[in-house]
C-alpha cells in the first residue's frame, strides 16, 4: 500500500522540478536579454497576470495626458503673457495721454498767469491815473 502512494508523489515532485527549472531559465533569460527598464515592465506584466497591453495602454494614455496637459499649460501661459503685454501697452498709452494733458494744462496755467499779471498791471495803471 505504501508503494502506490510513493508512485503518486514522485511524478508530482518531478513536475514541480520541471516547472522550477523552466521558471529559473525564464528569469535568467529576462536578465540577460532585457535591460533594467524592460525588466521592470516584464515584472509588472507578470504581476498583472500577463496583461502587458493594459500597462502599455496606460503608459501611452499617461504620456498623452501629460502631453495634453503640457500643451494646455503652454497655451494658458501664452495667453497670460499676451494679456500682460496688452495691459503694459495700454498703461503706457494712458500715461502718455495723461502726461500730454498735464503739459498742455501747464501751458494754459502759465498763459492764465501772464493774462492775470497783464490785467493787474492795467488795473494798477488805470487806478493810479484816477
From TrEMBL:
The keyword NADP does not apply. It holds the Pfam family DUF4577. Residues 36-57 are annotated as: Disordered. It comes from the Eukaryota. InterPro entries: DUF4577 (IPR028099). Keywords: Membrane, Transmembrane, Transmembrane helix. This is LSME1 protein. The lineage of its organism: Eukaryota, Metazoa, Chordata, Craniata, Vertebrata. The gene is Lsmem1.
